[in-house]
Specification:
This protein has 11 helices and no strands. The model is unreliable at 1-5, 15-20 and 22-37 (pLDDT under 50). With 206 residues, it is mainly α. The chain has 2 domains: 38-134, Ankyrin repeat-containing domain (Serine Threonine Protein Phosphatase 5, Tetratricopeptide repeat, Alpha Horseshoe), CATH 1.25.40.20; 139-206, Ankyrin repeat-containing domain (Serine Threonine Protein Phosphatase 5, Tetratricopeptide repeat, Alpha Horseshoe), CATH 1.25.40.20.
Length: 206
């Protein structure tokens, strides 16, 4: 039995063949022109690797060749997160100059300032704050950078955050303000620092 409609003509068959050929050609053209974005091109890879090493010259070269200053690794870290993690304050300045976002978040919702606070890196934290980083930004657990500094007992960073407008009364998802975090972690120096400024908070003690 023929698969063609009854009475189909040679012209009809030719039209079908041409239509299929046009569709196939269009699909091939779309595949060539509409490739999905691939973040890990040469310059993005070089930028990420150079950021890990704190190599400012290579970072700048990659950026000048079009590397994305906000490219993310598997954990959601951007080059600015790396700079915060390693306390590369000069690198942070360069990245911000080239458009790195101080609001970028990793997979846990941490901004570069969260990372700097957790690691106790006051130098890079200062760079971030002076560039407009939000001292009250929350990660996925509701923790602010001040919570992070309190958790690790980093009094220098905690003081810096307070100087730049960190709110000691912000609670995380457990309902804890940074003072309570410091208390739970037995971070005595940070607890003493926060005790006075936290008196206005509703849950100053638990």
């Amino acid at each position: 039995m023929s698969a063609l409609p009854a009475g189909a003509s040679t012209l009809y068959v030719a039209a079908i063949v041409i239509a299929l050929a046009v569709i196939a050609a269009a699909a091939a053209l779309w595949r060539r022109r509409a490739q999905p974005w691939k973040p890990w091109n040469r310059w993005n890879v070089e930028l990420y690797d150079a950021a890990k090493k704190g190599d400012i010259d290579k970072v700048m070269r990659a950026l000048e060749h079009g590397a994305d200053p906000n490219v993310k690794g598997p954990d959601g870290y951007t080059p600015l997160h790396i700079a915060a993690h390693e306390n590369y304050s000069e690198l942070a300045k360069v990245l911000i100059k080239y458009g790195a976002s101080i609001k970028a978040k990793d997979r846990y919702g941490n901004t570069p300032l969260h990372v700097a606070a957790y690691r106790g890196h006051a130098d890079v934290a200062k760079v971030l704050l002076e560039s407009g980083a939000d001292p009250n930004a929350k990660n996925n657990g509701g923790h602010t950078p001040l919570h992070a500094a309190a958790y690790r007992g980093h009094i220098d960073v905690a003081s810096l955050l307070l100087e730049h407008g960190a709110d000691p009364c912000v609670t995380n998802k457990d309902g804890d303000i940074p003072l309570v975090t410091a208390q739970k972690r037995r971070a005595e120096d940070v607890y003493v620092l926060l005790e006075g400024v936290s008196r206005k908070c509703r849950n100053a003690t638990r």
